């Protein structure tokens, strides 16, 4: 089955690009949060970015935040085998926390996303989990 609706898809792409219709000021699409929520282990990223295959788990969403030792172990050299980020939005910092071992971990202490099986009521209810 193909899940395709022209109006919804184009509208979502425009919204994600920051040119959609949104009444909230300074609304930005948080790529790190979306990656962690919908690709918590980084399997999708690993599929399309083979140069990051050596990075384990959710760390793949923020390779620039890894230590040089972790990058070296994964066979990644920022600026050579994988580009440096063009921008790093301040909003991303809340998704990058230090682990006891010293290497950053995007999910912090929360672990992987827990809302795979949320029904449609979740998205339309007033009560939101944090």
UniProtKB/TrEMBL annotation:
Region (Disordered): 89-130
GO molecular function: damaged DNA binding; deoxyribodipyrimidine photo-lyase activity; FAD binding
Entries under SUPFAM superfamilies matching the protein: Cryptochrome/photolyase FAD-binding domain
Cofactor(s) required, per the database record: FAD
Residues involved in FAD binding: 3-5
Record key words, sorted: FAD, Flavoprotein
Family statement drawn from the similarity comment of this UniProt entry: Belongs to the DNA photolyase class-1 family.
UniProt-recorded name of the protein: CRYD protein
Organism listed in the record: Hippolais icterina
């Amino acid at each position: 089955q193909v899940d395709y609706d022209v109006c919804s898809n184009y509208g979502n792409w425009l919204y994600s690009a920051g040119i959609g219709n949104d009444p909230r000021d300074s609304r930005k699409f948080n790529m790190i949060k979306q990656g962690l929520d919908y690709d918590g282990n980084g399997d999708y990223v690993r599929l399309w970015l083979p140069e990051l295959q050596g990075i384990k788990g959710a760390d793949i969403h923020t390779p620039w935040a890894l230590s040089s030792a972790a990058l070296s172990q994964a066979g990644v050299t920022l600026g050579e085998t994988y580009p440096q980020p063009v921008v790093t939005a301040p909003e991303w910092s809340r998704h990058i926390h230090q682990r006891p071992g010293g290497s950053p971990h995007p999910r912090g202490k929360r672990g992987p996303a827990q809302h795979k099986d949320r029904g449609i009521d979740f998205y339309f209810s007033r009560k939101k989990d944090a």
